[in-house]
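Mods, move this if it's the wrong board.
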Amino acid sequence: MTSVYDFIVEKTNGEKQDLQQFKGNPMLIVNTASKCGFTPQFKELQDLYEKYQDKGFTILGFPCSQFNNQEFANIDETLAYCQLNYNVEFPMFAKIDVKGENASPLFKFLVSQKKGLLTEGIKWNFTKFLIDGNGNVVARYAPQTSPSKIENDIKSLL
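Not the wrong board. Structure tokens:
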């Protein structure tokens, strides 16, 4: 695998989604959780999505329950929560693992491309990966990094 566009992921309804669909456009890939201290970041993520989606930018959310079981068991509950509380309109996908032997191939690729500060693996919810229009991972942001703080990096790719 040489780019993010080489992956197929699962949508919330079980259908497969080829990331080739996003080719040529920058995106932010985020492992999310609905019951986490960082969950309010959904608001800033949605704000960025609304601001730049007309320029081709998108955000892909991947719910994960690996960190203190902070995600609903049922994906419909996750979607309803995100919509009701944060008006999330960017694409959300099926719940996945982002670390360990059952980690999603996409997230294995992401962490192999951009290491974290102290470790390669994902340490918590809301780790963010910025992808350029060629499918390259250009930046990784820690969970505590506010989405608004990466806006200039996003603009530089548009």
